[in-house]
Amino acid sequence: MNALILIMIAFNIQFSLSMVLNRQLLSEWYPKYETSQSFDLRNKTIDSITIDTFANLTSLEQLTLSNNHLTSLDPLLFKSVTNVWDLRLDNNLLTKLDDSLLFQNLINLEWLNLESNQLTSLNLSLFSNLKSLRVLWLSFNKLLSLNTPMFSYTPSLKYLFLNDNQINSIDRLIFVGCVNLELVSLGNNPICTTQPAYVQQLCSTNPKCKIGI
After folding, report:
1. Which of 62, 68, 99, 111 could bond 75 through an S-S bridge, CB–CB 3.0 to 4.6 Å?
2. Does pLDDT of 4 surpass 60?
3. What is the DSSP letter of 165?
4. SS (H, E, C) 68-124
5. Global pTM?
């Protein structure tokens, strides 16, 4: 009986800590949310976000959703926030980002942080419209491979962090479109141990680029 009570208490605590972020809740936290330029929503125990939460918030430039419990994102969640240049989704529980529409309208995005999730795969066109993207964090996930054209349409990308994944396969043309790439962090991936020479040649067409293994 005592064990059952403890299980029920633990379940109720976990349930009470879960939170759905919607427009009403956002307006309570940010009374002037419609004209706000920045939302810091880290550490809010958010596990889901309704599709209209950020609708028509054209003044928004910085959005932080770090350290929550997000497992998935609606493909149209960021459709209206076209002026966001800094988006932080690190330290959540995201497992897949398999819809190419998710970041499609973020044409001004420069910083994207997706590190410390549970990502195993990414849609090959996920970053295809991010022409302004300069820094991308994908470290500390569970990615297994990198395939073209994942980064082929990110010409402004300068810093790419892929360390501490489970990557064992990388397309040899993966960075061809990254003409401004300066640093790729790939340390603590299996391929760095099994094929170190191959990894070092991945940026051979770009003399400015350094690969850290």
Report:
1. 99
2. no
3. S
4. CCCCCCCCCCCCCCCCCCEEECCCCCCCEECCCCCCCCCCCCCEEECCCCCCCEECC
5. 0.90
